[in-house]
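PROTEIN DESIGN WORKSHEET
SECTION A - STRUCTURE
LENGTH: 409
TOKENS:
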């Protein structure tokens, strides 16, 4: 009996049903995840004949959701900047500027009046260098302190973050992919498990009711249900539920501490870095405020330096040229303001301080807020993903009907 069954082609055809259903579930979930993030740019003929990853296609909106639902809950820009220890930032800037101070001074004074600067005795030049050097620490300390105090006015934090992520869609993808790495793997694997289980039901129906529509309709159900179940198991239930020895809770919610560690590291090393903050301050939407602040701090220093330079040069250059030099000092200060922040080890150290703050805040988020870190990835066109699975399941069911069962002919 067993031997006859094993040699019966119909037996193997029927047995293929749950396995094919499992493959359908696996493939549809895998495709759904890929279509969420890839391709980064539209491929095909716009506007309808082609595809762009759901997240990249709505980069501005997704970045805005990320800022509103996650970043603003974790801390303000002022808190993040203060966590980077402005006093140490000022010390670092002073050291870097001191190393280049004579070069900066030469560039300013030579550019505005090369003849006079070349003719001045070295003792006069050294006096100018010494005066500038003595003024720099206090100047930089005051400048960084005021920047920390008014950083929310100097930088449009949301604009800074949204612009960064809109311009780097791969980085935007990684915000979700890094946070939900394990969950995305689960979605793909669960398609195989759930698909096989649905396939067993499909097999039972098929044995007693061989109609042409059974396989494609169950293909739709498999594709739809596996996606729906997997997504909901990631986030539900929010609160842990005890059933005997087992605790049931959404997979993503259970990993809160683990997610916080990896996600906060990404954010503080690639998105909210000290370098990015300074660049946003000097070249962002409110750059004129920052430049005006730098020039306001530098003007009194320039006046005091001119007292050293002017007596030896004013006979040759006059007051008008000295005024141009004062202006040049301000412009040069703005121009070189980013130089000290192109220093990777220092940026890394400041990132670690900010990471500690964000990680502590994220670990303390209630589940309904923590889920917002990953949930928007699915909520944005969630139904489109599920229906994509259903369509792929339908096509697979038709294929099984015709290629395995010969279309019931």
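SECTION B - SEQUENCE
RESIDUE ASSIGNMENT:
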């Amino acid at each position: 009996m067993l031997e006859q069954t094993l040699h019966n082609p119909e037996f193997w055809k029927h047995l293929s049903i749950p396995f094919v259903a499992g493959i359908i579930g696996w493939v549809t979930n895998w495709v759904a995840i890929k279509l969420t993030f890839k391709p980064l740019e539209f491929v095909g003929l716009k506007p309808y004949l082609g595809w762009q990853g759901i997240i990249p296609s709505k980069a501005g909106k997704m970045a805005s959701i990320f800022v509103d639902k996650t970043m603003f809950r974790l801390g303000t820009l002022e808190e993040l900047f203060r966590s980077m220890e402005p006093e140490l930032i000022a010390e670092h800037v002073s050291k870097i500027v001191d190393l280049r101070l004579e070069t900066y001074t030469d560039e300013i004074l030579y550019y505005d009046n090369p003849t006079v600067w070349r003719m001045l005795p070295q003792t006069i030049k050294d006096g100018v260098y010494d005066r500038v050097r003595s003024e720099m620490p206090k100047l930089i300390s005051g400048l960084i302190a005021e920047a920390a105090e008014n950083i929310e006015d100097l930088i449009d934090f949301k604009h800074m973050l949204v612009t960064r992520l809109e311009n780097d869609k791969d980085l935007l993808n990684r915000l979700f992919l890094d946070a939900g790495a394990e969950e995305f793997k689960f979605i793909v694997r669960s398609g195989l498990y759930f698909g096989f289980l649905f396939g067993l039901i499909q097999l039972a129906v098929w044995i007693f009711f061989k109609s042409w529509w059974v396989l494609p309709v169950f293909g739709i159900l498999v594709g739809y249900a596996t996606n729906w179940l997997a997504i909901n198991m990631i986030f539900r239930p929010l609160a842990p539920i005890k059933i005997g020895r087992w605790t049931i809770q959404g997979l993503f919610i259970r990993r809160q501490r683990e997610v916080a560690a990896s996600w906060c590291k990404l954010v503080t090393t690639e998105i909210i870095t000290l370098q990015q903050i300074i660049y946003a301050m000097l070249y962002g939407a409110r750059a004129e405020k920052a430049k005006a602040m730098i020039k306001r701090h530098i003007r009194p220093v320039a006046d005091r330096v001119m007292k050293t330079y002017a007596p030896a040069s004013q006979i040759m250059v006059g007051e008008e040229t000295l005024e141009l030099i004062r202006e040049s000092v301000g412009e040069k200060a703005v121009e070189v303001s980013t130089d000290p922040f192109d220093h990777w080890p220092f940026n890394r150290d400041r990132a670690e301080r900010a990471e500690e703050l964000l990680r502590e805040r994220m670990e303390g988020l209630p589940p309904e807020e923590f889920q917002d870190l990953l949930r928007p990835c699915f909520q944005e066109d969630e139904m489109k993903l599920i229906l994509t699975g259903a369509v792929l399941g339908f096509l697979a069911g038709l294929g099984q009907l015709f290629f395995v069962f010969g279309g019931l002919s």
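SECTION C - NOTES
The longest helix spans residues 287-335.
The chain is about 80% helix and 5% strand.
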